[in-house]
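Troubleshooting log. The previous structure file for this entry was overwritten by mistake, so regenerating from the original sequence record. Sequence copied from the archived sheet and checked twice against the printout by T.R.
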Amino acid sequence: MIKFMPILLALVMGILSFKFSAWRTTKELAAKSTELADPKLNPLIKDMAKALDLPRIRVHIYEIEPVNGLAAPDGKIYLTRGFYDRYRQGDVSAEEMASVIAHELGHVALGHSRRRMIDFSGQNALRTALAMVLNRFLPGLGAVISGAALSLLMARLSRADEFEADAYASALLVKSGIGTGAQKSMFEKLSHLTGARGASTPAWLLSHPKTEERIGAIEKLERDWGIAHS
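Regenerated output below.
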């Protein structure tokens, strides 16, 4: 039992760290956000709520500059002020913004936030165990190797989540009458909007799939559903 104590402690610390981080994030979001009220976006959001048989979908503007959308640990959807400003400037259409909201709804509906709590705590325990084993053969390098291996694993899990949320969003956009065209055009704009520099980085090192892979997956869904590429 004694030899397993470091792993058990890592598991407990991982869970506590995640819960503290989730609490802190939720508190900051509440303090720095207001509910979205936009004459073009709100009707599209209502269409998605109707497609999901929900009374309403609440979307909030998070007052930070980076371009992003996110699903908070408590399930609320946020668009950053920087993202919303690009929409107001005409760089992004209302339908494209709706596709971002649909994607974040996918993360909530598919339970990715809850699963990532397990991933976060579990990877700490696994990192500790792997480091202990590797240190017997490679003293001093076990922690480095185990950390790198776990980072690659978590990136792969994150990419899987993104594909799942994309597919959920595609289905929701089709059902709500918005269509997948805006979703694909949004992906084509993202690297420019966010200033991303991932073109030369191998896809398996990225936490998000490459743009062409995401669009290709959506077009495969369109073929499976028997709808024309939009």
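The first helix runs from residue 5 to 31. Archived copy saved in two places this time.
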